[in-house]
Amino acid sequence: MVVDISHLNKHYSSQHVLRDVSFSVSAGEAVGLLGPNGAGKSTLMKILIGIAAADKNKQGEAECKIIRPERIGYLPEQNPLYQEMYVREFLLFIARWNKSEKEVEAVIDRVGLRQEVNKRIRTLSKGYKQRVGLAQALLGKPELLILDEPTTGLDPNQLEDIRSVIREARQECPVILSTHILQEVREMCTRVIILDKGVIRADKPIEEIDDISQLFYDSTHE
User: Fold this and answer.
1) pLDDT surpasses 70 at 222
2) pLDDT band at residue 95, thresholds of 50, 70 and 90?
3) pTM above 0.85, yes or no
């Protein structure tokens, strides 16, 4: 088991953002995390990568159990790139933080950036900027890959390229993919978790779902 979460809760003031969330992710899985705006997806991902904390009891002790790997690759929705840096320069800069400089050239080829390595990031298209963000997430041989809306705004050709990279990545480590595009989950994921109002409403293997749109509707409309 790569990820195991039991009875996770999260409040922001009086707002109960996540309610008794429990799930696990195993090697080889690509889990599509679906839900309407405000469902708690972003908060869940922040807790998974360790930049937000789950609720604690009055004694300051964790109320939930969270098992996660140390090495996590993360691509947030707002891709945080240094726009004035060159592509290779940026990836080498990121690689120095996790001592993965030797991986940079292989990752450049893996995500299809070889023709762009000597360009400033600000000159790249949306699709190539996403590739740069995905490349930095893959550096350091992550044990878990978390992607937040990785295909938003891409044209059809760019979509298929990014899908291929993600499908390949899940062979090496499990992937959690947050998106509002139902077709992306169908194309890239092995399993679907639907979150609504902080509660997991559905958790099913993709092959058991006949109509993902109907499942989403049934899970998020009371």
Assistant:
1) no
2) very high
3) yes
CA separation (Å) from 43 to 97, 191, 198, 220?
25, 20, 9, 18
Please name the residue that has the structure tokens 């058991």: 208
Report the C-alpha gap between 85 and 88 in whole angstroms: 8
String of DSSP letters for the chain: --EEEEEEEEEETTEEEEEEEEEEE-TT-EEEEE--TTSSHHHHHHHHHTSS---B-TTS-BSSEEE--S-EEEE-SS----TTSBHHHHHHHHHHHTT-GGGHHHHHHHTT-GGGTTSBGGGS-HHHHHHHHHHHHHTT--SEEEEESTTTT--HHHHHHHHHHHHHHTTTS-EEEE-S-HHHHHHH-SEEEEEETTEEEEEEEGGG-S-HHHHHHHHH--
**How is residue 172 written in tokens?**
């090496």
Q: Calculate the dihedral angle through the C-alpha atoms of 91, 44, 164, 135, rounding to the nearest 10 degrees.
A: 0
Structure tokens belonging to residue 196: 């609504």
| Token pair recorded at residue 11 | 């409040």
Q: The tokens of 127 are what?
A: 């699709």
Strands 3-12 and 65-67, sheet pairing: antiparallel
Q: For 131-164, how does the pLDDT look when each residue is reduced to its tens digit (9 = 90+)?
A: 999 999 999 999 999 999 888 778 888 888 888 8
